[in-house]
Amino acid sequence: MEQKELEKQVRVIADAHRITQETVGRFVVGNQDLVDLIMVGILTGGHVLVDGVPGTAKTTISKIIARLIGYRFNRVQGAVDVQPADIVGIRIYDAETHEFVLQKGPIFANFVMIDEINRLTPKTQSAFIEAMAEHQATLDGNTYPLELPFFVVATQNNQEFEGTFHLIEAQRDRFNYSMTLHHLDREKEIEILRRDRDGNLDWDIYGQQIKPILSIEQIREMGLVIQEVYVDDAILRYIRDIVVASRSHGDIRLGTSTRGSLALLRGAKAYATMAGRTYVIPDDVKRMARPVLGHRLVLEREAEIGRISVDDVVGDILETVEVA
Q: What is the pLDDT of residue 143?
């Protein structure tokens, strides 16, 4: 792609990102970082894991973005009695064709939100992981391809553990990006109250006003544009050094995988386009480091006892690793 054409297409991505932020911001207070991360995931074909307390507008943000980009949205509520068939679907007998046909479940959508994925049993979690990793679902020995593009946002409440099933490291690694949401601060909390007082938090009204600004085909084209973004060898070495540092840090028992390296590169390229640039700078890598590394690192027991957090360790890595 020629440079002028690349610059033009990058401006389209940056404008779409700006409109998305503005549209979400008219109904949701705060959580702009989550909007950014979901957009990065969609543009790079990665999935997003969100830790956080209830009531932080995760579902609303996801629904708004899905409508803006023309994705079909389905939501699944995690519970211990949810079975793989509840998300994949069931095979029913068709008397006319004398064959069993699939009655599709909620997994067959472009944008799937799994609320409280850690409340699902490991067997049901595995069905989601297969869909995320292979873009397919298996039922009764039959494999069914999913609709493409396919994007997942999964949430879990990191304050509740009763009746939950912790995602193992290999499952968490299937998520390209992650983040932790917290309660709003004082000023944003009062803004929510003002909006509700003034009648501006009615989703039934606001949701009908949201019209698509992009199509599925445009999202596919944007993915190709991101592949054209320039990344200097110095940036590649910087990404490598961050990942290697995560594997040798004294407080870390399990460091970042190679899948994490690729997610960091692709995320930095997507973030650069959202900022309107055709090239990646070190700040793009730093911006994506926590979302990429955060859920992949496993701390040593001594670090956990000493109340050292993953965020602390990632911050230490970013302070010590320099662009070569």
A: 86
